[in-house]
User: Fold this.
Amino acid sequence: MGTITVDRDDPIKGKPLVEAHHDFGSVTDAVCSVVEKPPITKAWWISFFIAGSGLMLLLAMIAYLFWTGIGVWGVNNPVGWGFAIVNFVFWVGIGHAGTLISAILFLFRQQWRTSINRFAEAMTIFAVICALVFPGIHVGRVWFAWWMFPLPYQQMAWPQFRSPLLWDVFAVGTYFTVSLLFWYMGLIPDLATIRDRATSGIRRFAYGLFSLGWRGSNRQWHVYERAYLLLAALATPLVLSVHSVVSFDFAVANLPGWHTTIFPPYFVAGAIFSGFAMVVFLAVPARELYGLKSIITMRHLESMNKIILATGSMVGYAYAIEFFVAWYSGNIYEQFAFQNRAFGPYWWAYWTMASCNVFIPQVYWFKKMRRSIPVMMVVAFFVNVGMWFERFVITVTSLHRDFLPGSWGFYMPTWVDICTLIGSFGLFFTLFLLFIRFLPMVAIAEIKGVLPQAHAGHGHEGGEH
Amino acid sequence: MKRTIDRSSENRTLGDLGPLLTRVGGIVAALGILATLALAFTADHGVERFFKSYTTNFAYFLSLSLGGIFFVVIQHLTGATWSVTVRRIAEAIAANMLLLLGLFIPIVFGMDIIYHHWTDPHAASDPVLAAKLGYLNKPFFLIRWGVYFLIWVVVSRFFHGQSVKQDTTGDIDHTLRMQKWSAPAIVLFALTTTFAAFDLIMSLNPHWYSTILGVYYFAGSALSAFALIAMSSMWLQAKGRITQSVTTEHYHDLGKLCFAFTIFWAYIGFSQFMLIWYANIPEETEWYLHRITGSWLPFSWGILIAHFVVPFLFFISRVPKRSRAFFRFGAAYILIIHWCDMYWVTMPEWYTDGIHFSLMDITLFFAMGGLYLVGMARGLGKASLVPEKDPRLEGSLAFENY
Assistant:
């Protein structure tokens, strides 16, 4: 081989990240028009009405809970942790896809992330809001919920620093703060774009206020890029740490089925798994209804489905290793906990979990399945069901039959538990619908960076500019 | 941005370095084996100690090749471009599996010493062990290792073989085939590595169990393989090979991987320690009790500092990743400290009262290391040092961090 001239901007696999007909202007138009002249007002209003009703239901259930007390829930002795913790862990997990996409995939230079990161980051924020509702309302005496924070006051009573529940307060609080900053900072250039396109004074003012005087100068972009990289680096450990700390809620205990050393990475994998399933589940209808199929392409969906397969297999690995080691331990309590999970009174929950999380995603070994819209909607739905059940299985099956058969019990949710869960989806979807109505759901500026037009030499061979 | 890479006069074959490596490796191995034998037959309990030191060193060299398999397979699975120019080195590291199969034989003969807890005929009278003798017994142990090696040898030879074939045919089908098989390969890799770690390390103390141990062994394997790839590539470049193909950019990425897996290793190690310490269940804490008893306590602190804090601070900056002088040092450091980690996971199970150092720990390192070099020379000598006709080669040459 003689002298060759190589060009880093010429990818070997020339698959475009967005469909070829786009240029800078058409990307801006496609994304901004969703906010400026929504193509589907009726469907949005119907969805908003349903989601808003869910939110009202949540508020009503919380009011009823505060008025009456924790007794309206199904929690009992021995199952002191019920839906509240299950829903908390579920929602924290949903958020993880956003952070993985915005932080880790950014550091890995995975350019396909640009079409979906805004969307997924928004989901992170909303999911964490949903999650944060539950620790707040489950404390019983809610007027003391502020005791979760280490605030100095005259009684000098501090929270229990040795409790992983307190670590959760810090872990999830940090996670929410960093995610919000990351999301908002990424929004600034796009908010400025909408401001500059605004036709009414009120829009110009509102978007202008939040775009913080962005002018798109070189200096601003330089600072922006540095800040983005730094936030990505800071958010990367958060992807791992948040759900690791959440897993400590269970794993530091002496309880068989909770106490196992693989919990931290296993929870992280499960969180990313469920988060991606939620992104797919929402991205598919959104791109369809808002005409963004040329920006969120089949390639993006397929990549996400591959991640679902990979993380789903990691979760399956953890299930298998847990089972094996429970047997290998020779510890009858460990063995019982796992037999009881799979064949005890909650066998239906266990097998729902295993089918949805381990068996169903295996269809993604086939490219055809990864690229089929109906298949991915079904799989994404089941993955979310399965991951909710995983937390249910972990929480309830280990508690309901503890070391003393005399104190065994059974847990079933009440109508209030179920309505609160439904209501949390109402909160999530209300926030999500407001997001797609008022904010650009695709990162316009970042998409432009991965268009071929943005690269040196485009259009004139060998030239530099 | 464009730059010109002139590969016309570059030497991309191992050439006379092959015989040199073989000679040096052979001499080191021979001296190591002789010294080991001398020590084994003269020292008190020499034979016993031989098998223990041997297991530690076997765990170390096995982890290097497992890390090599991981590196190769994950590049195909993700369709990575940047790594093509250093992949052949990883393929050679992985292909050393056949050598490791041979190196496993002494373990077969030493099982009664190494795994005396469960190979002892009285093990069945221990109720905890009795429950798991269906898994921990000699025939099944050997069958499992047979399966692991079958998978590792087939996987490593397949990826090496396809890649080498592509050098002559230039057929893109090889790439597609490797991509296709990389997914099942990673599943097999995860399962075999986990159970190999359980068998090799966890069963040294058959009362103890930890679900994360397989991941711990994997984290160290991958980390040390990244270091070994960087180290080998730098040595080859110092000897005038692949001087153009592997650039600062490739070292920068290998350095990032070293940094990331330093943290990942610490995360996994911390998860295991924290959960066992906090729950404080005697059958689990025993493992750490051995590691805080006597002189093992400073050793354990040393592992924490030298395997996490030092490399974390070293690799966090851009400079050492892009400077060969620094990186050479960092990579060698990781390879040494990973050996200490393998020492730390194995030795306290036999010497529960404190460190009992033996010269055989070192002589066996040289004996196996020498053979490992001979194996690498064979692997690297078979073909060009860079996958010549990989469709992503140009992208890899052009790769830049920005």
